[in-house]
Design a protein that fits this description.
Number of helices: 15
Shape: globular
Helix content: 25-40%
Radius of gyration: 25 Å
Strand order of the largest sheet: 2-1-10-9-3-8-7
Structural class: alpha+beta
Number of strands: 14
Order of helices and strands: EEEHEEHHEHEEHEHEHHHHHEHEEHEHH
Distance between the termini: 32 Å
Length: 511
Amino acid sequence: MIFHNHKNSSQASTSDSPAPEPGRDGGGQAAPKSLGKGSGEEPFSKGLPRPPEAAFDPAAAPWGSAPAPTGKEAPRHLKTGAGWGGWARGAPQSLNGKDRHDRVIALVDMNAFFAQVEQRCNPALRGKPVLVGGNPTTRTIVTAASYEAKARGVKTAMSYHEALRLVPDAIIVEGSQEKYLSYCNRLGKIFREFTDLVEMFSIDEAFMDLTPVLRLWDGPEAIGRAIKRRVKEELDLTCSVGIGPNRLVAKMASDWKKPDGLVVVRPEELPHVLWPHPVDEIVGVGRRMKAHLNALGITTIGRLARYDVEILKRRFGMYGQWMHERAHGIDPTPVDAQGDAPVRSMGHSYTLPRNTSDPETIRWFYLWLSDKVARRLRADDYRARTISMIARFPDMHTISHSITLPEPTWSGHEIAAAAWDLFRKHIPIRTEVRLLGVASSALVRGRTYQLCLDQDLVRAECLLNAVDAIKDKYGADAITCATLLGGQRSLLRPKIGFFLTRPEKKKAGVI
């Protein structure tokens, strides 16, 4: 595995240890050393490559002392020879028929993107702790922090109060989504100078499939350095780049050297690189799933890889198999350059300026959020069968409840009615909340019933289409239902967020 950073970008150092010292934003977390000497367990399955003898320490084997429950070895999906042979030549063609190791995928992560943009636009902020978020006169959280602030303990999603307690001299900047979308657009154009296969995963991250163009470069390190150099020259911003044989590995690698890093992971290094890491570093394994896995003795990715997949499937369904494959570095997901990946859900949430228990205010926000969800559904010709209500309380405890409708819908009023009914059913009256959310799932394309049989439905659809057309031309606030003109509208603040809706991607010109 190759590491580069901004201090010595011209030299590459190869790690001979079983795994790098991973860490987010410069931190590190060592692999647990729970495999004691004399346990008798062979740390690597037959056929899998092992690190150099001098570097191998059985006491530090990444999966700990517990073998797979059945004693089975991990699948032999990697060849022992060097996988990319000049990167792509001579690579294993597939992994269990599901993934290819001749692909070269990069993930570009813009370090502290919002804070970097503000420091570029205002040079007086450079070298100083900067917090970016909403209006500081209202309750809000840190959307992004500069590395000067992060070095002193500030984390994304902290309240301003917490952040200022850690860094009293921090400078608060009210963010501008329009400004960040503009930079996102310029980044997309730079990335497309290298390959047409670019997917803007979020406003500050992009996947790039470099497989077709790698032959034009002297290896993946060269193209990674070129991407970083081009972004620095054009926008005066730094980024971290992770390169690997698939999206999973590229994403994880980009987190291992921040800020301004470059990490390259080759296919034959996957077991040694991935397995020492905590299991929740797999993208898609959250806090709750981590607790379930830890209860089974699965604390690292290596233990997950060695665990019997049949037991995982019985316990977690197909998600168990999905996790097992990811633990072996298998991720066949392609880079979606056109933004056409199947949509499984759409939702919006909102943190209130202050806690409230007022039923009318809560109901108003559910209608407002439902209207936004419904408009996204109609824009992409989806209807939703399942509606979910999300609520977070002042102690940060969050609950979510769902209902399946008799017929799929894209009506904001129907979605709001379902969310409000769920709220009243599951949350006692006069309970204070700090965040509300609405999500739609079980999406289906197009019409699911004969509109011609019900003229009311025909008129309702024509009305919604006319309203959407007016909003598209004159702005989201040009026309709305009378209920949404209430006094609660004064509580709304401009959005500052990382994940882009499809309309925002189109506006930014990234799809």
